[in-house]
Design brief:
This protein has 211 residues and is an alpha/beta fold. Helices cover 46% and strands 15% of the residues. Helix 6 packs across helix 8 and helix 6 packs across helix 9.
Length: 211
Amino acid sequence: MTIAVLANEEQKNVWNEKGVADGVEVLWCGSVRTLVATSADVYVDLTFINDRERIEKYKMREGFPFFVNAVEETAANIGHGVIRINAWPGMLKRELLEVAIAETDQAIIVEEVMKLLGWKYIIVPDIPGMITARVICSIINEAYYTFGDGISSKEEIDIAMKLGTSYPFGPFEWAELIGIEKIVSLLRRLSIESSRYDVAPSLLVDYKMNS
């Protein structure tokens, strides 16, 4: 199997650390144009952004398995038969890769590709944030509410979370790893569904400072 992958250097390094099974050839691409112009069996865009011009280019490879790192946007809205994966920073290296599909028959495609890659995966609902990103963003948001109320420091909250849950990172460490802009963007999307996702004021302060 030949797989064409568009990725930045950090994502490429994580992919290489994760590894793939024998018999899989990875063709690294530096742009969307190069990605869709490359002859391969499977296509992966780890640098996906929700841009209509970019998505239109995917039409060149319609009919081929096309995986995109789209945590916030749904596969149904993106269209062109894409399959979503959660490749946010820290997520691609996890043992189980989250995958979301818009069409049930795509489950067979996912199974075949992941088996050839030698990767474990789980199919999750095609909703904004999938599962893990929703949970982590909620935890980060609540941590910022706690911090904003002056109950504890960021360092103490991180330590308490890691000791109490055995998570690899505390909420503020997760925010730094993933990127505050991604956290705020997803929370704003989720807040349309429920006010419990309303962005904490102290998180918005950090967001504006990093913008």
